[in-house]
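Replying to the earlier thread about multi-chain prediction with a worked example.

Input:
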Amino acid sequence: MNRREFNRLLTAGAVAGILPSTNIAFAHTGPNYDIPQKGNARLLHITDCHAQLMPIYFREPNVNMGLNEAFGRTPHVVGEAFLKKNALSPHSMEAHAFTYLNFNAAAREYGKVGGFAHLNTLVKSLRETAGGKDNCLLLDGGDTWQGSATAYWTRGKDMVQAANLLGVDVMTGHWEFTYQDDEVLSNVDEFDGEFLAQNIKLTEDALFEGKHAHDEDTGHVFKPYTLRELNGHKVAIIGQAFPYTPVANPQRFIPDWTFGIRNQDLQELVDNIKENDKPDAIILLSHNGMDVDLKLASVVTGIDFILGGHTHDGVPIPVTIKNSGGQTVVTNAGSNGKFVGVLDLQLEKGKVKGYDYRLLPVFSNFIKADPEMAALIDTIRKPHIETLNEPLATTESLLYRRGNFNGTFDQLICDALRHELNAEISLSPGFRWGTTVLPGQAITFEHVMDQTCITYPETYARDMLGSEIKAILEDVADNLFHPDPFYQQGGDMVRVGGMNYICDPIAAAGNRITQMTLDSGKSIDANKTYKVAGWATVGSKAPGKPIWDVVASYLRNQKHVNITQVNSPKLLNVNNNPGIVL
Amino acid sequence: MALTRRKFINLLTVGSTACLTLLTPLTSFAAWASDAFNATKIEDAYQNLFGSTELIESDAVVLKVPKIAENGGAVPVSVKTDMKNVESISVFVKDNPQPLTASFTLPKGTIADVSTRIKLAQTSTVTAVVKADGKLYSKSQEVKVTIGGCGG
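Result:
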């Protein structure tokens, strides 16, 4: 499909009255998906689609703070600062794709994003422009098998089918490992591409017991890297799974596997590949998160590109990091199927001569759905369609999650927990996935599942001391705001309901959270107990109903939602931070 | 038939009774170093073990330990070095009730590469000390013990 056809589609839409009039003069040129290949090889990169097979809305954050060295550095800029840093025009389609600005109006103007049927058309076209499969690889950074109801119900298998049809050549993972280990291995078996991870090893006990390993001598559970020929050039691709999976997610599903950044192992691997395989380029397909990747690029040498994910940052202009061995270019390709990264390479013997990178937003209304993929998605959804489409309530507010602190959908979940479990305070994890619902839309069961469906969804309500609540907030704050990225886990601050606090992100660990108060204004006493409701317990299985049942029940009773108060903390020492607009 | 590491280790287990005698010297070593192992401050542990607290920080000491512990109760740690004449390798956890956690005495000519699992009471700095040619070389890293959750 070329630009002219997109424009024609847009015009047709306008005539049919799909585009409502707004006060903002949005740009009326369609996206350009006709990207001629530069150089002699092309890598396509998707990441963190979170199993969103259908087109969705996804609002980018208005709070994505960078501190210390990361202050104002990509990806820690939002809104107007983001546009300026990346030279994007206000009110353009790109501005809508990459920022939260004028979200409601722009979402109505440009429609939904992503969806595997649309993605498939785009990937096919980009692959074709590059001269087909011999010159082009599709890499998936992971978080593919989790995030939707159908992925949860099929234990990720619907996404394996979709990824196979999409033609994913290489992938790594994170939420993939929240299924039971034998389910993960079975899904990897069914996956037509290669599943890579240099940083997942069998524990010594598991190695001794003879558990499945890719290589018993090195202890790698999965193949660490692959060599592929692209247009006659040898390219090495190394997989880097999310290093803190057994910390951030339950270890009980994957008791035999141990993770970590393993930067020293990575350096040894890169050196070995260079010496023995002599590739023309070395690529790290990473699920570290952008800040971790930026640091990794400074301490590990010999990697040409880190194609990154995990932190869901849509980064239009890659960041080049100089290191003692030369330079490494770091990208991050957003989330939820919104983007496709296109990396064109000029490869020469033993080196990358040049490159061209674009992060294309996937505007579903401007791309024809691929019929074969659409049929597969239809087959996957059909048995569940009534459950998925059940309208639970309507919303007056825009409902979203993404941001360092409570989004409106988080607030809804926190309100539901307090109401349904009769608790004073509620806690909800700061995930970065979860789709957006526009004001006036019905909130369906599918929307609730998009925000909540994990393999450890059980809720709890229990008494906690004020000091315990503070300890939890401090612990998560340190995961997010630790000055050294290698100690950050990605994800955002734990969401709270029924309470408020002051957060000083640059304070030392254990001192960031102060003045915790209940909604009533009464201060939270360290030595008093409070009834706290929550979900997604990592240590052991909680006793209560799954969170989606709690939220759905609340919504059915409420019938109408209007979020007027959000329990976001008051922030200290964030003046002039371009990663925050309140 | 290729002998994999696991099969080799399994073979070793069969012969483990024969190894018992090898363990005896460790007991006597522990008795000898009890002042160092029982010390509650890291400086005292250095002093009691080495008779000195003068450490030279060195990248030649390769310390591999997770930055965030998956299980604070059993944190894998390995220490290796290319330095010559290594006499011992020791591991300290600064904020543990008793910081000296492990000490390996290496007979002359042994490859200086050891690994074990250590317990962390809380987030702490872990320090590996290599004694070589009578001098003490060290490398430290923070290991975080966290409640976990909320990633992604």
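The first strand of chain A starts at residue 41 and ends at 46.

Feel free to reuse this layout for your own posts.
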